[in-house]
Amino acid sequence: MGMMEKLDVQTDLAREYLTFRLGDEEYGIDILKVQEIRGYENPTRIANAPHFLKGVVNLRGTIVPIVDLRLRFGCSSAEYNAFTVSIVLHIGQRTIGTVVDSVSDVMEIPAEAIRPAPEMSSAIDATYIKGLAQVGERMVILLDIESMLMSEDMGLID
């Protein structure tokens, strides 16, 4: 089996996604991007930052920007409670934290269970949706979190 054939086979395999909730919706991101999950702590606010950038935290000597995904998606603001967590992601050469309502679990989703997102007007640019996965009774919106967080409108790239 040549190298290109191996790559094709790997893309057809199931991948693991960390699922989390924002309001009533459940989202999934590639588990390989996740560095750690932390309880929510108030970040230090940065003047003139976009409204969805809550500030920064010092994570073992690394200054990490914290993005509230609910605010980024234009949803109503949420109460921060005991279930609110920060998912710390390692994207490219950056470490970025995202605030979500709660983390659900890690699930393996086969490629054939993922359907393309329908064309629609929504708060999320469809280019950041990898697809929709039906897992039992649950519909999981799979995000291309790397493209979304590294997009120019996020202001997190140099």
TrEMBL record:
It comes from the Bacteria. Residues 14-154 form the CheW-like domain. Gene3D superfamilies: CheA-289, Domain 4, SH3 Domains. Pfam families: CheW. It is found in: Cytoplasm. One of its GO terms (cellular component) is cytosol. GO terms for biological process: chemotaxis; signal transduction. Coiled coil: none annotated. SUPFAM superfamilies: CheW-like. InterPro entries: CheW, CheW-like_dom_sf, CheW-lke_dom. Keywords: Cytoplasm. This is Chemotaxis protein CheW.
